[in-house]
Amino acid sequence: GKKSLRQRAVDELKHYYNGFHLLWTDTKVAARMVWRLLHGQVLTRRERRRLLRTCADLFRLVPFLVFVIVPFMEFLLPVFLKLFPEMLPSTFETESKKEEKQKKKLNAKLELAKFLRETIAEMAKRNKADTG
Predict the structure, then answer these.
(1) Which residues are in the Letm1 RBD domain (predicted)?
(2) What is the pLDDT of residues 47-72, one digit of tens each?
């Protein structure tokens, strides 16, 4: 059913609390990775991707904090999120947004595969015509 305004506000606050908590955890882990890098250790591919994602999230947090700090600016946040969907750090994404992103990536990969398949078929026809 429909949630009350109070319940939606509480859910939103929990969402942002969990997002900040995850970002803090990611930042601590990234700091350890940077420490290891500075001491000559090599990161795995997964660690490197996590470090890059965390750094990007920290840079995205700066404009996000402007909306939190400036009074009444949080009312414009949904407008800016529609204009710039990648503005929020990844720890603040909802499950539906993650699924939507994955679907878009999958569709793009499928279109690319279809294009490559058609190109290879076309090249095979040309080669067959040239040799035949």
Answers:
(1) 43-128
(2) 999 999 999 999 988 887 887 788 88
